[in-house]
Structures are given as structure tokens and as C-alpha cells.
Amino acid sequence: MTTLLQPWANLAAPALLKRRRVRKPLARLGAWLAFLVLGTMAATGGPSQPNFIFILIDDMGYGDLSCYGGEGVQTTHIDRLAHEGIRFTQFYVASPICSPSRTAFTTGQYPARWRITSYLAARRENERRGMAQWLDPKAPTLARMLREAGYTTGHFGKWHMGGQRDVGEAPLIAEYGFDESLTQFEGLGDRILPLCDAFDGSPPTRHALGSDNLGRGNITWMDRSKTTGAFVERALKFIQRAEQTGRPFYVNLWPDDVHSPFFPPKDLRGDGSKRQLYLGVVKAMDEQFAPLFDYVRASPTLRSNTLIIVSSDNGPEPGAGVAGPFRGHKGTLYEGGIREPLIVWGPGLVDAAAAGSTNDRTVLSAVDFVPSLARLAGAKLPENVAFDGQDLSRALTGKTQEQRSKPLLWNRPPDRAGQNGERWPDLAIREADWKLLQMEDGSQAQLYNLAEDPGETRNLAEAQPAVVQRLRGQLMDWRKTLPISPPIPPGAANRAVPPRSFVNPIAEGADPWIVRHQGTYISCQSEGNRAIALYFSEQLTMPGRKRIIWRAPREGMCSAEIWAPELHFLDGRWHVYFAGSDGQNRNHRMWVLQSEGADPLGPYTLHGPLYTGDHPETGTDNRWAIDGTILETAGRRYFVWSGWEDERDEQWLYLAPMKDPLTLGGRRVRLCDNDDYLWERVDENERGRGLHEAPQVLQRDGRTFIVYSCSGSWQPSYKLGLLELRANGDPLNPADWKKHPVPVFQSSPNTFGVGHNCFVKSPDGREDWLVYHAKLDRANGWRRTLFAQPFHWTPDGLPLLGAPLSAGVPLPWPAGQVPPRPVRGRWLCAFNQETDLDSFHYYGHHQFMAWADGKLHLGVKPRQPLNAYRAGEKALVAGGNWRDFSASARVCVVEGTRDAGLLFRCTLPAVGYDAQRGYFAGIIPGAGKVVLGSMNGESWREIALVEANVKAGVEHWLSVTARGEEITVRLDGREVLRRTDEEHRAGSIGLRVVDTHATFDDLEIQ
Question: How far is residue 371's CA from residue 377's CA, in Å, rounded to a whole number?
Fold first, then answer.
């Protein structure tokens, strides 16, 4: 044990530490008395139970605090805790990445036991890695144990054990034993979401990862550089309330601002490099802790009975933090990924002789927190629970330097396979001073003696085969107890796919309507709620050429909320039926655009509104109406829509005869009740109102059906029901319509909120296809994508729509679909005119791509965003299929700090960040790097990341050359990286951004 001798404000490095030689008798007496007091507290469980404040910093390295040798900044306030408390040098987290690391602190068990082995992400990504969607509430938690022992418990800061991206139904933090919580975008409930200000004159950007659309809690937007202070403020108020009640408290204070993206205050940005921004965040965080530390230190009661514990959840992000003398970083099982600072402060609880000391001997782990703190609190551990940690409370409080009796074990996050061609070990074990790392199958053993070689530079596996065999046996036996699948090797998801396949979602949008005309599919879509666009494509499953055919006027009754347009060819002209309003939903009516001739591009004339009320003879009391479509049967034409009966927001299906394509010719009739079954109601319960909308006509073998959408379109319960017209029945007689008692199409575990569909034939007319939208989020909202899949018929003639397929599942093309006209050889697009975009298939939100100033803009922010979301926007050359080539383009990041660059050898594209198979090479101005990586349709694998002189606002010339397995990337004419990889052999070439607005020009392929 060593002691800190320098004044706390001047601490800079471990070299300042010297050995303590002798304990004075008085110190021994104080230590004995302190132990007696602690033992009494634990035995009685009374008001003298110790308080706990646990500070868990995100992604901070072992060598970043100045009291651990950090040289970049002075972490003055944390250093003072180290000077007055104990600094541990052999403390380990249970995983080199956030979610599992936090799970171990919370449960006292290895996180893989709860199927949390990497960071919790979007639902499909969690499933791909064999992970749970959130920490099971049945798991033992320290907070619950302490609350049962009389504590009040609070969590303030990052959670990341459930609830983020598209997982909106995860348990709230309260369900894990916390009385109060305030979290951020990787958790649910009340939360702070950050505004990222680069202080470059541009407005702050929101950083939410979809959390702002998940609901379940109040949201406060705040400058990211101040969020730690906000969590500190809430923690202080919580502590003050606990003091008033006389109850002991347990507080998690888990700031996330040290995790990228780094946005320190303006005066701490340094030169703007990644490293300097990171150091600025660390400094700002330390300063924001001061009010809490000062408050506890200034209160005699709290000072004598509170433990403050400071650590980090895993190793540093490369290029930001540092791991001190250790090898590795975040994501690796080397020391740099899992060994972290640990500071324990508590003048009334820590042995007086240990104050200001360093414990270099005791090996501690995150899994030890639960049994150790429970012992100090006098809390009872639940029976029949096997904890992986052990009670090391006496070492934590400086009474001993006892050694653990159990080895420590780790498994690598399955999505962190390696980098730059290096495969990282899958499993690791530490027993005494020996540490063994190996692959999942036991191969490639690496053995280190950490006492002699803490930097893991000398592999002793061949010299110590007996040690390897012994540790390997323990490690493999432990591995067999874990309910997890083997790690995913690179390219494992890139299974062989039959040629002429596609994957969903095929496009962004809602309320799809597609017709086939003269060999071309025409899709009709609302454009930003203020216009109507037609898309022309020879392929049902691929986006096509877009043309705006009509824009709403600036004001008036049909100037806003342009919804669900449908294109119909009637009496020799094209007609577009759509809902429009003046901006207030209660004023929605049905309108019609009519073309002058047989050209679907128009020009068009606006007519309407159609009369959809109960008094067509007078035209009074016209009623709310949306989702109009056409039914033709027995030589007559009818209009079918969703409308209100009166002024109440309650939707029914109505039908009326048509005099001509522009006029209804009689009274409306309500086809059926909208609440016969719970599944038709909003919220699917007795209190929910019935809701019918989006009628679609389906006819076959003389039978007529109406497929309708029901429940709430904003909910994951949105689904399709079915009406059938009785043989020879009268469409205007509700008694002639039969409702089927069960839904004909409803959510699956992975694809939900399915509805508002259309029906279309395959190119050869032999197959029936269903096109529908599905929600992006499980929480309420209208962010949606379009899916396509074939459907069939039962032997008795009913439509058999099946179940919605998952995104990313390969499907054969519709029968008769021909590929785009092939593009090979030299190819050039200068983006001189907007029609140059016709050469590309675009995948992303329709408002995030534009042509302007002779350039393609991807990721451009819309002025009036409509259910907008980022999706790694990309544009691929239609019909491209290059194997060996050179491709180049001018790239300029206009706003944002993330990736922009070239996709290549790309196949099976869909809407989504990594929803394509192929490679990507791009610039990252925020990090000053060039990146090369591979995608398998579900996830990203980094191949190389190198430093480069790239800046936002500067036009860079980016080029890629691929010859067989060799890939070369050049920036502004200079080669910056060269790697070999064999995952993808051929495919199209295109342009892509990640959470960034960039421009592209002069794309050339040869």
C-alpha cells in the first residue's frame, strides 16, 4: 500500500506516490474503532447505515485522470477524492463495453448470464447477437436489496440496460429498485437529451438515437456540455430529501458526456481535434462534480457516513482516452479494455490509516460491488441466487488488502471481432497474476504474467503449457454455463443469397399506392405533406425516378396535410385522390387531381373537395374524410373512404356511388361498426375507440373484398381487417358486407404497426403482392418504411396474407421482374441537372435527398421535417455491377461530423444504416480520419481507420480502387490505406452518409 503525499491540487502522476512504512498506534486504534462502528451499523441496519454515491464515468481510460498519470488535463476534484481516500490499481470491469459492464455492477453477476454481451442497440441487432432486449427485471439488483434494507435509491445519468433506438417498451428504471431516476437517450423515463454545439456558428444539433420518439417520460433538451451538471443537481436534491427523512441513500451518478460525440464548453475545445475535445469533456465533467463533492464534504453527518466511489465502465475509445501503460482499448479483453480506475472516498468509513493510499495488491471486480456494498449496508442478499462476485468490503474500506479466492472471467462482445485484420481474443481469465486470453474454441492462447508484464507484451503460452491447460479448463467450463451463442465472426451473416433477390424495407414512406401501367410501376406518394410525387420503376422492389406532379398552394383548404394519394386511370384520364386540409386535421376533406390527358405526369387540375357528408342534395355539413379509393363492380363505380360521422374524431368506413370521377352521386352509407372486436380498437381494450381507415379493394374470381386498417396508425397494434361483399350483394347495403372475426394481417415480433396497404401484380401477372407500411418504433409515432411481400389464397377463395416478414430477409424478385439496364465500363455522373438523379436508386427518408447547385445532397435537413429519421442515406447506381474498378467522387461534409463517402460492391440495399451488403470508404471530419468497413445487411465491421487531414466544409477528392481482394483508398490523390478483404466480390457503387449532410459531385467509375 502506498500513500499520496502531495497536496491534492497538484497531483499529476503515480510517480508522486511513495511507500507507507509504519502504522502509528493511534492509526491502528482508529482503524479498530471504525471497524467496530461499521460492524455495528451493518448488524443493526439502523439510521447509521452508510450512504453510497457511485459515480460511473462512460468510456474513460485508466490513464485519463491526473491522479492515475493522465497528463492531458488536471481532474482536480476527483484527484482530491483520491488524495483523501483509496486509489485501487487492480480493479476490473466485467466487460469492455457499456451495457454488460453496467449489468455486472447492478446484479453482481457476469452479464452474459442475462444475455447481455455487448451494448444494447436496435431490436434486430440485439437479436442478431443473441442478446436480450433489456435486463430482465427478475435479475437481482443492488438497488432493490438496499431499498429492502431501508434505503432510498436514485439513478441519475446513463442507464443503457434497456430502452433505446427502437426498443420503447423496456422496463422503466423504477422496476429495478430505484425510487427516482433521470436518465438520457439510452434509457427510459424522464430524461435529458443533448444538444451538441460545435461553436462554429451552426445551430446545435440534437443527439437522441431515436429516444425522442420513444415516449414514456418527460424530455428536456440541454447543451451536452452541461448534462453532467444537471444530473449532479438532481442527485443533490435527492440527497437533501433523503436527509430530511433520515433514510440512508444509494445514488448512481452515471454521466455519459465522456462518451463520443465530444462537445465540451467552448473554452475547453482546444484545437478541435478528437483528443482535445475529449480532454475538454473530462475537464468539464470533473468541474461539474464539484458541487456534489463539496456538499458532502461540508456536512459533518454526510462526511462521516458516506462512501463516494468513482470508476469507469470500460476502456477508452481509440483516439480519445488513453489506457495508461496497458494494451488495448474499449471492446478488447486486454487490460486497456477492462482495467479501470477505482477511487473510494469516505473519511468516516475508510480506515484512517488507508486515507491517501494506493492499493496495488487487491484484485477487485465490478461483480464484487453487490456483495460488498450489501455487507456494508447490512442488506440481505436474496436466497437461491449465485453471485459471481465476493464480499471484499474490508478491502474497499481500507481495512485489509485481502485477495480474492475466485478467478475473474470475461467474454468478448460478439460484435467486436477485431480491427485492421487483427482478431481479438474471445475469452479471458485472470487467476492471481496469470491472465489467459483465447478464442472461443480454445485456440490462439495468450498467457501473461501481469505482475511482471502488465502491458501484455510477452506471450508465455508456449513456455507455460501447464498453466495454459489449467486456466483453459476453468475458462471453458465457465463458458458452458453461459446462455449465449458463440460470437459472430466477420461475414457470418453474409450467407449465400440466391440471385435476383431483394430485402425489405424497399423504401421510406407510408400509405403506399402502386399501379402498373405499360410495363412500368408507378408509385404515388405524399411529398413532405405539401406535394404529390410519382415514382417510375420497371422493378416493383426498387425505388425509381421521382417526379413532383403537384404542389399544394401556400394557403387555403387544400394547402397542408396532403395524405395518402392514390393514382387511378378512369375514363381516359389519370386521377389522384388524396386528403388535404388547411393545416388543421378537423378540416380534412377528399380532393381530386385530374390530368388533361393520358400522361400520368399531367398537367393536372385540382377539383374538390368531394362531398362526403349526409346531405348531397344540399351540399351542407360536409364531413371529415381521408383515404379515398375506387371500387368498381357490376358495371358501377363507388367511392370508399374513412370518415367521421359528425364532428367527433371517430373513424368509420363509408361508401357512396359516383356520378363521375370528380363527383359523388348519392348518399354515403356506413359499411360496418368499427369496434366489434378489441383488435379493432385503439389500445386494443374496451376503453379504446374503434378506428377504421385505409380501405383497399381486392377482387378475385367474382368476389369483392375490402381490406381495411384498424386500431391506431401510430401504434404497433395497427393491423388489417377484412370485409367481404355477399355474392350478388349491393355495395350500398351494409347488411351485404360480412366482417371476418380475426385480423388478416398483424404485427410480428420484428415487424409491427403494419397497415395501410395496396395490392399489385408481379410483372408477369402470375403473383399477387402486398405492399404495406410498418412502423420504425414500437412507441407511438408515425415514422414508417415500406415493405413488399407475396401473398396467396386459401382453397375456399379467401386472401391469405400471412405474416409480415422481417427486415433484411432475402426474398426472390416478383415473377417476371427484369433487372435494371446493366451499367458497366466507364460511367460518369456530374450532377449537372436534377434528372441526373434518375440514374440512382435512393434509400432513405424522402426529405433527406435533394439536388441543388449542381450537386447531390444526401442527409440534407428538411426545412419542415415530416416524421423524419436518419437511416444512413444512400444512393446507388441503378443496374451497376462492378467487380474490379476505380471509383472517385468529390465529397464535402456540409453539416455534421460523421461519415460520408463511397459504397461499392454493394448488393441487397434497403432502408437502414447498415442495410446493404458491401463495402464503404468514407471521410469522418469529426475524427479527422478515413474509414474502410464492411456491411453484411445487419451490422458494420470496421476494416481500417486511419488518421487523415479531412475537415468539414472542405471538398475532398475520395477514390477507391478494388482489384480482387485488395482495396486501396486515396484522399486528394494520396494513398491513405490499403487492405485485403474477401467478403464481397461484386455489386453496385453509390454514395452514402451517416448522420451527416454532405454534397457529392463528379462520380466517376472505370
Answer: 10
